[in-house]
Specification:
Elements lengths: L1 E4 L6 H5 L7 E4 L4 E3 L5 E3 L3 H32 L4 H34 L3
Antiparallel strand pairs: 1-2, 3-4
Helix pairs in contact: 2-3
Amino acid sequence: MVNPIMPIGMGDEAAAGDLEGVQLAQVTGAGATPGLDGKMSLSANPFDSILSKAVESLNSVSQSEFKANQLIDDYMKGKADLQEVMVATSKMNIMVNLGVTVVTSAVTSFKELTAMQI
């Protein structure tokens, strides 16, 4: 949830100048803790939560791959239907392709950010 808050003043010239009418967003949710004034502020590294979600997603892809391989083995033994194997393999293929795409674009974005001159 994003709540608008007014920016912190940098002095009289900032209040009367360019910052007039500008609003900042207040972040609430994972990693946000209440401050002394009761408003939420980020105390933890936001990349930590993003990285943990990415690791959980990759674990999910790994579990899907394991399940598909197990169904292939069961099909070879005559314990599973071909439809089940094809559905599980297709799901796993889609998940792997999405994971590779996300990782590739994250690496590309990181490279672009590090190449920026400040």
